[in-house]
Amino acid sequence: xxxxxxxxxxxxxxxxxxxxxDNYFVIVIGASAGLHVIxxxxxxxxxxxxxxxxxxxxxxxxxxxYASAILTTRFGWPSLLALAAGLVATGAIAWLLARPILRxxxxxxxxxxxxxxxxxxxxxxxxxxxxxxxxGLAGIxxxxxxxxxxxxxxxxxxxxxxAMLLALWLALNLVDSQVxxxxxxxxxxxxxxxxxxxxxxxxxxxxxxxxxxxxxxAGSLFAHQQAFVSPDSFNLTISVVAVSMIxxxxxxxxxxxxxGAIALTLLHQGLVVFEDYEMLIHGAxxxxxxxxxxxxxxVGLSQGAQRLWVTLRQES
Amino acid sequence: MFEQLFQFLVTGITxxxxxxxxxxxxxxxxxxxxxxxFAQGEFVMLGAMIAIALLDAGMxxxxxxxxxxxxxxxxxxxxxxxxxxxxxxxxxVTTIIITIGAGIFLxxxxxxxxxxxxxxxxxxxxxxxxxxxxxxxxxxxLWVLGITVLLVALVRAFxxxxxxxxxLLACSFNRVAAQAVGINVRVMLRLAYGLSAGLGALxxxxxxxxxxxxxxxxxxxxxxxxxxxxxxxxxxxMGAVAGGLLLGVLESLGxxxxxxxxxxxxxxxxxxxxxxxxxxxxxxxQLVERV
Amino acid sequence: xxxxWKTTLAATLLLAGINLASAAEPIKIGSFLxxxxxxxxxxxxxxxxxxxYVEDINAKGGVKGRKLELIHYDxxxxxxxxxxxxxxxxxxxxxxxxxxxxxxxxxxxxxxxxEKEGIPFISLAGGVEIVEPVKKWVxxxxxxxxxxxxxxxxDLRKRGLTKVALITGDGGFDKSGHEQLLKxxxxxxxxxxxxxxxxxxxxxxxxxxxxxxATDAQAIINFGFGQAPxxxxxxxxxxxxxxxxxxxxxxxxxxxIDLAGEAAEGVRLPAAALVIAEQLTDADPQKPVLLAYxxxxxxxHGPVSTFGGHAYDGLMxxxxxxxxxxxxxxxxxxxxxxxxxxxxxxxxxxxxxPEDHMGLTLDAFKMVEVRKGAWKILE
Lengths: 316, 291, 379
What we know:
Strand order of the largest sheet of chain C: 2-1-3-4-5
CATH class of the largest domain in chain C: Alpha Beta
Helix content of chain B: over 70%
Strand order of the largest sheet of chain B: 1-2
Radius of gyration of chain C: 23 Å
Order of helices and strands of chain B: HHHHEEHHHHHHH
Structural class of chain B: mainly alpha
Oligomer: heterotrimer
Structural class of chain C: alpha/beta
Number of helices of chain B: 11
Number of domains of chain B: 1
Distance between the termini of chain C: 81 Å
Largest sheet of chain B: 2 strands, antiparallel
Radius of gyration of chain B: 19 Å
CATH topology of the largest domain in chain C: Rossmann fold
Largest sheet of chain C: 5 strands, parallel
Number of domains of chain C: 2
CATH architecture of chain B: Orthogonal Bundle
CATH superfamily of the largest domain in chain C: Response regulator
């Protein structure tokens, strides 16, 4: 069932630019949404399946972005090498951070991840010589995939869609793997999982690192797509938006996270025409969905659809 | 050198008492509901902005301040009634997102009502700085400190001496047991929100003469207040106050002695260190997890 | 009877024809500004100005018989949104030119797209890197941060002060000013004896100022905008520091004086003549333009801001170019913007050229000082 949904989704996103050629919302916003999907799906592995809150994931997103930006702009590294280096560096930092941070629970964990996010953001703003300070780094060279230089919105749509599908596929497989089952056991009850012989510390560390890698990967692509990075794109607000995406879409569901990411990206583009009313509407919508559909839009809608299906079958 | 240090401390305690007041609000709501209210910073902002608006309309300061506090309390009660209560039984993360949404909503309302400008309140007793052994302090800062001490003492007395306060604390220890002995948990929650909103509003009115208020003023203060509550051990109101003071002093010392550019990073690094060595905050009770 | 019918039909067709011909397409001006967010202090007056004057121009018949349509998006300070919105303006809304980009970060971020698509872009940000090196389609109207720093240093040198303490915020405007302060110091013989920072949302800077007080600084320069410089100014008074304080043009508005109160007395900064319009001599060609803008803006919105003035300059330069080009053809309009000569704006007199896409000289900045709660021009 899941795989069928995946293929359907892949077909849909591949067809969109054909059905709506040269459409800003499809190509540009679609690309934006694609990156958000990668970020959200990774975060969902941590929050939805392993049950660990993170309010600082924008930091990992930013680490990938700045690694690619600094290494290609200031040191002239080839873009794929820079991307790999970014992944390695982010993974290492996540791994070092995981042990102490994952001993915390609930609000303490939220605070620790929040604090970490802020520390990284402050460094981005203050270390001007490396990061370009608050105005960031411009003029990032294009992504070079084995000779092919990715340029132009349509090409980027293709690359990001491919990356997003890869991320989704990885996430879906992870959830069903041994590591994934261990994680869900941890979420259910960490104590019980330990009693069953699951190395909870290791499982949690692994998922923390994996979710950080997803974010860093999205960040590197982001840096090359925008040809520009600045700390504004990696602050607390972005971390909160990432969490909202998976909450809105439905935690503990990979497609839910993807759904939430796409919905929120489109919502932002749609609400911007309301100008000063945007903030109020955004807040009201967030509250409304969380109050009336706490299991998220995707899960809520699919449950609703299922019930409708059953009712219709009963009628006939 | 010592003079400088003293000034850093004085500044730190001044700023810290702001964080302490905001942190107290976080602790109160957590005690009654096991969830953090991320709109607490917005209560601070509302108190200040409403007071400023009323003052501009011609009300005398004391009346404007009291009216603003009352109106903010009403806002807090409305928030609880229409956003928190319908979602009772929701998970902690869901409630957090709801309060984040509420914060954004309140900011949006403030933006529409009062625009993007900065506003200020006149200081309560002038702004001639007072010399305190080599350090200078604004009279308004003494107001902030003094009223914080008063409010903390009142809150403490409320929890320890009054039946209502003890009932509120009982909810935080064990909600089911509290219900079993006849405590109306729903009313307690509403009380907590109202109380926190009132405390927040007072904090905002006290602070506005020193820093300025705008629709976004609640975000940073909310963040620092939350950090204060966490450092002190969430759920421990006195801990939140201690945490706030500590955070303020650390920020000031970090800026003065190490690097003013990285002072926020230093402050949060400290928070992380505290959490790594004391996972439930400095004065928090041990979390008991049901198996 | 038949003749009446025919005449009516002919008249109707004629009228319809005339209507069709004069229902000309509006000229679309795109804009992206930070109306909310950390730089709303800059973006809000910019938007208000653009809206006010587009309405005004349309009421007077538009440009060459065509109405102006302003399509704008709020980036909220996020440069990623700036890029997306510029793409939306170009691809989706099909605008003819863009006046916007409140911050240097936002403006720099969109330059690659603007250059690739070939659309005239007038930036409202201060960073010197926006027009240096010159890009074909990119122009700007505010003075550069380098000019602001040069003006400040020039004044310090005149007063014989050479030891300077810096205290700077953490925004893009602040940091790029800071960069120029460091770069130009040797040129003007300035020694920097302290270099402190604060966060733009901070409520107290006494710790940083206490450090500065302990040095042998002869003057303090605070490069920032919004509420923080007002707090710095008040803290300085609170600590009893009597050194001369220089601010940047980021606070060249009455709001700063209102917020800082008595502590603002004696503060100096470089500003566009807009804030001291009444004090110019009547012979000054800028005076009527400034007073007209000031009165119009203040009647509707409150104290005027030089950043709103930059938006006025940008819009009027664009309108002038549209009129000279006779159409909204992007290449023609671009050429005409580049040929702007002797345009009297709120920031000064603009003379653009293929090498200079900003058009202002250092004397467009005036040195002003706060005296008795109001700006006074220094000469």
